[in-house]
Write a structure and sequence with these properties.
Elements lengths: L1 H15 L13 H7 L6 E6 L2 E5 L6 E5 L4 E4 L5 H14 L4 E5 L5 H4 L2 H4 L6 E5 L2 H9 L3 H12 L33 E3 L2 E6 L2 E7 L8 E5 L4 E3 L22 H12 L5 E2 L7 E2 L1 H27 L4 H7 L4 H4 L11 H13 L14 H12 L2 H13 L3 H14 L4 H17 L3 H12 L15 H6 L2 H7 L6 H4 L3 E8 L5 E7 L2 E5 L8 E5 L1 H8 L5 H6 L4 E4 L1 H8 L5
Parallel strand pairs: 4-5, 5-6, 6-7, 11-12, 14-17
Antiparallel strand pairs: 1-2, 2-3, 3-4, 8-9, 9-10, 10-11, 12-13, 14-15, 15-16, 17-18
Helix pairs in contact: 7-17, 8-9, 9-12, 10-12, 13-14, 13-15, 14-15, 14-16, 15-16, 16-17
């Protein structure tokens, strides 16, 4: 009892103690973003004997580790053309064949240059055991939306002179100037930890979830060199990315950095931004970095438990000055506010706790009610226009949402929306939001063209697992075109002997990787040819006529099936 009372007294004393206001640092400016470009001076840096990193050639760095008779490559850049440029620089340093490629994670800017580095020596490609699944997910079921939002976030459709840098690299090369992907899938995978020797170099791989669940870091114990992948770079991390991503576990990210920190590396070579040297310096920087991540997590959860919703938390969450002043936590990529919303969603999902959010009015009805409050549509437009003239660009932009829901093609509103987006973009120092604003503005021009930056070519398609390709069909079923259909099909692939049974059943597609009798149509083809048809590289009608796809049974059912898909 005495102990209990002493504990209560302790917390009462704490609750009555004076609190100090959190001091924040000044937010970066667009001029600071320009200065940040110095981080991406194009060069190959010798970190220490036998370790070289190519910085500024692409969004992601590529790293060369020299062995006795063979070399190791960590990350391969994002296109064939970029990889060719980097490999030529590496070849000037060492003529050894490449025995090993390591993917720190699945992102395209780290993996899509692999064919160049593997061209001559057929190396083993090391990655986490889940990397292939994530590669297939982005190429398959999520490609259209990830491509669209990535285009905007990285400013790929903007004039080159408008893209200062992308925060973690000079530019995203995928889809730029006709550059092509050269993806290879991993050949060696692991779950938690893997040790091996390549070219006489002792290599240790650690699973380290953070920016991605399949993230790993590379440790060379004999050189005291650590390669953190995307769990560390010189900017506030993308604890959430506006292009869209699975939940990024901040607590796991902190633990991953702690694993790296306690190894006490003397060299730190990230896959973005420049390398660091010095045991104490690296330890202190990693400590600050992980504290920044943990602060966002812990304070978001604290405010969640007080009943605040995600928008309220994002508004209140301020990175304290001792963290925000660090050059490694400046908001040139991620944002504490975005991150707080990600934490909220990861723990509690979409519902913000406000009962009015349970069944809100549909967007059009909400817009019409707002217009009534303003008096009429013209009054609301005048309010939006006045707000823009007064420099209240965000409010004006939000009002254009209501105006366009009522009159979707009103030219005056579209122009007002565009001018607001440009104004907001020009004020932003975070390149992700800056280019998303400016790209969204450019999208309103009649001549705007948006490239599919993740559109795979035939070489990528060849290597894409047929299982993933068939699974991706399920999310392409259009209910309006299939709600009255019941079709069973069998696909057999002559080059792999694999078979898939498909049931299109009133708006739902069931896919099974084995033979089930009863199909009204059977299609025989090679995997490569079928993948090319599904990807639009080859025409379905022509493939049926020339026998590339051989059909037994009802061609009408086959055509009805394909007409139900948005491909």
């Amino acid at each position: 009892m005495k102990y209990f009372l002493s504990v209560i007294s302790f917390f009462l004393i704490l609750s009555c103690s004076e609190s100090s206001p959190i001091q924040s640092t000044d937010a970066p400016t667009p001029d600071d973003l320009i200065s940040h470009s110095d981080e991406f001076k194009k060069e190959v840096i010798e970190v220490t004997k036998g370790i070289h990193v190519a910085v500024g050639y692409a969004l992601a760095n590529s790293i060369l580790i020299e062995g006795e008779n063979s070399n190791i490559i960590i990350d391969t850049t994002g296109t064939i053309e970029t990889a060719q440029e980097v490999k030529a620089m590496f070849d000037d340093i060492s003529s050894n064949p490449i025995e090993t490629i390591i993917y720190t994670h699945n992102h395209a800017d780290h993996t899509y240059g692999a064919t160049v580095f593997a061209d001559e020596s057929n190396p083993e490609i090391y990655a986490h055991s889940s990397t292939e699944e994530y590669l297939s997910r982005v190429i398959g079921i999520l490609r259209p939306i990830i491509s669209t939002r990535s285009n905007r976030m990285f400013g790929n459709a903007l004039p080159k002179e408008e893209v200062e840098n992308n925060g973690i690299g000079p530019f995203l090369e995928i889809g730029r100037d006709g550059r092509r992907p050269g993806l290879l899938y991993p050949t060696k995978t692991f779950s938690d930890k893997l040790n091996f020797v390549s070219g006489g170099v002792k290599v240790e791989l650690f699973h380290a979830p953070g920016e991605t669940d399949d993230q790993l870091f590379v440790w060379l114990p004999e050189k005291r060199a650590l390669f953190p992948g995307d769990n560390f770079y010189k900017t506030f991390p993308n604890l959430y990315t506006i292009r869209g991503t699975p939940y990024r576990d901040l607590s796991g990210w902190v633990k991953s950095i702690d694993m790296m920190r306690y190894l006490e590396p003397e060299y730190l070579v990230p896959s973005h931004t420049r390398p660091l040297e010095g045991k104490e310096k690296i330890y202190n920087i990693l400590t600050t970095y992980r504290d920044g991540i943990q602060f966002v997590h812990d304070q978001t959860v604290r405010l969640m438990n007080l009943g605040l919703g995600p928008d309220e938390i994002a508004e209140k969450l301020i990175l304290p000055k001792h963290l925000g002043d660090s050059p490694f936590l400046k908001e040139f990529y991620g944002s504490p506010a975005w991150s707080a919303k990600n934490v909220f969603s990861g723990y509690l999902g979409w519902f913000n706790g406000n009962p009015s959010s349970l069944k809100p009015l549909n967007l059009k009805d909400e817009a019409e009610n707002i217009i009534k409050l303003a008096g009429d549509w013209n009054n609301l437009f005048n309010i939006a226009e006045t707000s823009y003239l007064n420099g209240d660009y965000q409010w004006s932009l939000q009002l254009t949402d209501y105006l366009l829901r009522s009159k979707p093609n009103d030219n005056s509103t579209l122009l007002l929306r565009q001018t607001n987006l440009i104004a907001l973009g020009n004020l932003e120092s975070n390149p992700n939001s800056r280019y998303y604003y400016l790209s969204s503005a450019a999208q309103l021009d009649e001549d705007y063209q948006e490239n599919d930056i993740l559109l795979p070519d035939i070489e990528v398609i060849k290597k894409y697992p047929i299982e993933s390709m068939m699974e991706s069909l399920k999310v392409n079923v259009v209910p309006e075109k299939s709600i009255d259909k019941n079709i069973q099909l069998l696909f057999t692939f002559t080059d792999s002997s694999k078979a898939f049974s498909l049931f299109l059943r009133r708006g739902v597609l069931e896919v099974q990787p084995f033979l089930i009798s009863g199909s009204s149509v059977q299609v025989n083809a090679s995997e490569e040819d079928f993948k090319a048809v599904l990807s639009g590289i080859k025409s379905l009608p022509i493939s049926l006529v020339n026998g590339t796809l051989q059909v037994e049974g009802s061609r009408a059912d086959l055509l009805s099936f394909f007409s139900s898909l948005r491909i």
